[in-house]
Amino acid sequence: MIFSVQRFVEDHFERRGLADVDQYAIRVANVFERLEPGATQKLLSNALSRIRTAFFRRNQELKRKEFEAQLAVTLCRRFKKKRNNPGFEYFERSLLPARGRLRVRRRSILTLLSEFKKAVEARAVDAFWLSRKKHRLRLKPEKIAQTLLAIFAKGVLGSEGRVLREFASGIGFVDVGILFATVLHLIELKILKGQFTGTNQLAAYMRSEGRNEGWLILIDSRRNQQSVRVPARIDTSSGRIRTLLVDVNPPAPHAT
Questions:
Q1: Alpha helix positions (H), the chain
Q2: If 5 and its partner were Cys, which of 29, 84, 215, 219 is the partner (CB 3.0–4.6 Å)?
Q3: What integer pLDDT is reported at residue 3 of this predicted model?
Q4: CA distance 185 to 44
């Protein structure tokens, strides 16, 4: 649930041209998630007023009390019957242990994305499926993947990194950018059903951003991961693309 709320709030801010300078959207989502089912709009509005944020200093045209009251009304109406999404809530449990492991290991984009792969495969497979048995994915599964990665990276990195979603590059939009210090890592996410795609698109972004490396994360929904072999690395005229397969259609375990 927290991921749906956070994505909704981010999109709401973007449509209104509001700058989220300190991840206010994720704090709103966290506050909403902690409320008991059936909590009133007034209770949510009061909880939002206690968030420490620079959001309203940056967007000075807003009156905080009025804005948060209306946001509380919108969230309660939209998500009242959508609490307790098990796929997303279960995934959230991966953030704390992943954060701990990254603190004791050399932090790199490879270790971060490897932890993301483990978290999705362990706790978020069902987030992509209406029915795995019938092989029916949810609507916009790439958006689900983007949201999971953005929330995971923000939750694990905290103030030690910056996460950008769907930011303009050339004539397109990069799915996710993760900034460590001054290095921007470009990441495209695609659903793998048969032939994989995304290399030309990512290479164009690498060229626009002056980066000689990019990451293509493939959410593997194939049955038994058959047919197409995915290379671990793809060399292009713009630089090297590294791939990462995330298996969201594993075989069911058999009792012995």
A1: 2-15, 24-34, 41-49, 55-58, 64-79, 86-92, 95-104, 109-123, 141-157, 199-209
A2: 29
A3: 67
A4: 36
Residue carrying the six token digits 């994505």: 7
Residues 15, 123 within the same domain: no
pLDDT in tens, 213-234: 999 999 999 887 566 788 999 9
β-pairing, 172-180 vs 239-247, is unpaired
Coil, helix or strand at residue 233 = strand
Q: Both tokens of residue 244?
A: 């990462």
First to last CA, the chain: 35
180 lies in the same domain as 90: yes
Q: Which of 64, 79, 94 is the last residue of a domain?
A: 79
Which of 79, 108, 131 is the endpoint of a domain?
79
CA–CA gap between residue 216 and residue 243 (Å, rounded): 5
165-185 per-position pLDDT tens digit:
888 888 889 999 998 878 999
**What secondary structure, in 3-state letters, does 116-174 show?**
HHHHHHHHCHHHHEEECCCCEECCCHHHHHHHHHHHHHHHHHHHHCEEEEEEEECCEEE
**Tokens 């909403």 sit at which residue?**
32
Q: What pTM, to 2 d.p., does this model score?
A: 0.66
